Amino acid sequence: MNATAVARVQVATTAFEDGVEPAVDASKLGVPAQIDSLMCRRCWDKPQPCVPSAGCLSEATVDDGWLVKSLTYWYRNNYFPNCVRPEITPLEMGLLFREILGVLDGSMLKGHINGNAKLRVFLGHDGPLSGMLGALRAAPEQHQWPAYRSNLIFEVWSGVEKETPREYVRILSNGRPLVTVTDPDFTGAVRVPWCRFGGVPGETCPPGTFITFLQEHSVEDWSEACRV
């Protein structure tokens, strides 16, 4: 952690924002705009910036900065709302969950999507996508700072499992089946998923289980629920 703290200071003092002088106060350490720029250079094999007083950033320092932001997103959107303040999730992601329910609820069990549309697309930034991963209780290793072009794909399949026709839900996070945990902590000896989204025999999530989860983690009247 000490090495990571040093990396954050180096990122803050070396990576300039437009029109802003280098800063080392806590509010400027490793902000997403800075690390975004550095990661772009890292991915395209471009040299990292240098300043006379601080030298040049190493690739390891940039990677540390990315890990810091990944941990921040996981803690803010996954661990804290699920383990400390569970009432946050319905308020933060409830509206989007209700949108998904509007597509799935009832019609999915009949084998078709509302309005006969086979594809629905929702667009967002890294914050909402991280919030969605947290609300779905993604395993820590799958909840990183969402990179450019990151995506979550929800699929409804009809298939046969143990010689029985059935429908199931599959969720892919950047092309990989989403792994969920009941308790999104690092400390559990055995991590049990609340549903399995692999889409292969023994790794299927029943539509009813998924719909119930969305209902339990959302609110019908968001404006009313937010009143204090």
TrEMBL record:
Matching SUPFAM superfamilies: Phosphoglycerate mutase-like
UniProt superkingdom: Eukaryota
Listed Gene3D superfamilies: Phosphoglycerate mutase-like (3.40.50.1240)
Protein name: Histidine acid phosphatase
Organism of origin: Allomyces macrogynus (strain ATCC 38327) (Allomyces javanicus var. macrogynus)
